[in-house]
Specification:
The protein is an alpha/beta fold. Helix content is 37%, strand content 19%. It is globular and about 70 Å long.
Amino acid sequence: MGSETETEAGTLPLGTPDEGLGSDATPEAGLSGRGTTQTGVRLYHERLALSLIRTHGSISKAEIARLTGLSAQTVSVIVRGLERDNLVIKGASVKGRVGQPSQPYSLNPDGAFSIGLKVGRRSGDLVVIDLAGKTRDEVHMPYHFPTPEQFLGFAEAGLKGISRRLGPLFLRRVAGLGIAAPFDLWKWQEETGAPQNVMEAWKDFNLTSELMALCDWPVIACNDATAACAAELLFGTGRQYRDFAYLYVGYFAGGGLVLNGQLHQGPTGNAAAFGSLPVPKAGGGSEQLIHSASLYLLERALAQAGLEPALMWQRTADWSAAEAQIGPWIARAAAGLASAVASIASVVDCPAVFIDGAMPPGVRRRLVEATRRQALRLNMDGITPFAIEEGSIGVDARALGAASLPLFANFMADRDVLFKDAG
């Protein structure tokens, strides 16, 4: 793998849990036993209440009733059940101008957990998040395009370590395992520099099935850029928007799409494959966005300059040594991204397009600013004005998005209700 593991302490509502996975497993099978009711799919009204509590941070039963249209009695029954299951906690009483004091409820971070696995071409990540979306554990491994067996070994060792650190009580509260992986991982051999036999091995390797055999949790797979978009929607600035398009600049550029407050994956899960968009090519003609706004181009430039490309794939990477290569890369990437966002905005009527990536925040900021400047040079006649926004998650977006899939599939409702008071 090239390095030892580093351990650090249609439209779908972010995915649907696979039914029946490990249903015959005993508590001793795999890495952990099936959890209690915390890991089951909640009833719709419970999920609705949890979604509102998450969105508002803390909220009273009266407010939940007002926003959902449910009766006060029904909401009381729901909240008591959630409190009994340790999913919400009661705050101190707040005295209003009239009537009895109200008690706000907030999510219990320890009420449920979820694990996300990011499959990258240069690094792998495992992350554990709690019900409030806070990262509780991380495992990171940089590599140079691993074999399936090597990556599975990383995943297995990482999951065992996470299970040990969570302990029996919290382990029972794991909602599932989400996977964020590129589609067609075995393609683009020339760009990745991986041996042909390794690429071919990935073509016939079913990582989801292999991971299902390692654990007894539900397993949900998602395109990696789509998962990054989910992280922006749930944990980032994207929470402020009902609709937005999303571009993630990783080893290859990709994207995601949010419509009506929900992640839009399409019938095959490949919606918003923005990396395939044709953009103008320097010197004439066109090329796909992945060939103008992907990090493999910067990696190649570093290698040609005699620098160590591995610095790009470390968690706390300092890219200052590569400044001579970063400037030209940003210029080329921004030109492609500007053309891409114009194309996206002409098809999807959304108020914002987010740009994020697996890079230090300072580099991302420069990339977004350069893209805005390039976009001003384009003819936008007939296109509804939109903002080009900087993503807010960064290198962790794909792993966090993967971890969010089981959590929200089990505990959260669609987000339409969250915009009820908007505007």
